[in-house]
């Protein structure tokens, strides 16, 4: 075995890449800054094409057994309740998994780590922070801060899957074009059963409101509620018990405090890297594109990058294909990041927070009409489930 791929970051994107490459017999070393695999609470929605891809490794069945199958998604209005419900079963024939899976992203990471550990030629180094990157025509070299000091590693290629603040991207000086929203998003989880109080609630609910919209997402043991914050509130103010209880009580007055299990505040960005590939270094996932979580497209898009990229690396390193194939990766996945992931999530935010009553009414009427027409609803679901995005990528040569 002579080929060796270095991977920065043991998030879902780095780990899917590592498993795909290791399965093809390629040596991989993953550098992860954290000393343990954290229970990352960010993503909770897996879209059908991602489940189709993960099924290659038998991971989908395992995730399904640890998550909730969401057949329906809903668009709601905070005052009026249900606006439109979409039945994912309309996607039958388009995907082997015509549903959303509600399951925490750390469960995928854990399954991936267990699978990767079975390959003697795959190594995950914890407490290993990538610092610098250099390359020439024949190899790429990185310096990594480990508990034993600074070490140097060399490989054929480097995948930068080290998240939004990617040291790989920064080391190469690649611009991260876009913007950061002035408000942050607060996610609170609670074991309070909202479904007993909101009629016909599904597992995935986007709730619009001109004052304070929210998203209500079910995972097996908890409800996660995502709220926007006001730009003028400090992080400390947002995170007080008083302010968190006020937001929850405003959503559903309950007369006594809500039990809360987690509370996390996130900065939110819409950014795409100007380049996804420079020579032997390729960016994927949040390191390459980052977006607001409305629509659940960040991890899904990143995992789809990982499959696209690592399959191409296998063709290059195992079957002798031209490295120019990596330019196709950039063309395909950068187009999807701009045209689908960024565009749709930005539109979702604009729709859910719309303040103009006329525009709100128009959007809600459109959603009702789409939901009432199975052909239109199927088109809508193809777009929101990222099936269209994958077809667009395939069409790019
Ligand atoms: C509130 C919220 C909800 C979300 N919900 C969804 C959802 O439902 N569906 C969805 O698809 N997406 C969702 N997302 C987005 C999703 O969480 C991310 O897109 C996803 O985690 C990206 O995966 P990644 O592997 O690219 O990066 P990450 O998961 O960020 O992993 C990067 C890894 O690299 C490590 N690292 C960083 N720097 C270094 C370094 N220098 N050296 C070594 N290691 C390093 C980090 O410690 C981390 O483990 C959500 C995001 C938020 C904030």
- Gross morphology is globular
Task: List all distinct small molecules, including ions and cofactors, that are bound in this structure.
Answer: flavin-adenine dinucleotide
CATH architecture of the largest domain: 3-Layer(bba) Sandwich
How far from one another are the termini? 31 Å
What is the CATH class designation of the largest domain? Alpha Beta
Give the CATH superfamily of the largest domain: FAD/NAD(P)-binding domain
Report the β-strand fraction as a percent range: 25-35%
Give Rg in angstroms. 21 Å
User: How many domain modules?
Assistant: 2
Q: Give the averaged pLDDT, no decimals.
A: 97
Main sheet summary: 8 strands, mixed
Number of strands: 20
Biggest sheet, spatial arrangement of strands:
6-5-14-15-16-13-17-20
Structural class: alpha+beta
Helix content: 25-40%
Determine the CATH topology of the largest domain: FAD/NAD(P)-binding domain
SS element count, helices: 12
Residue stretches low in confidence (pLDDT < 50, at least 5 long) are none
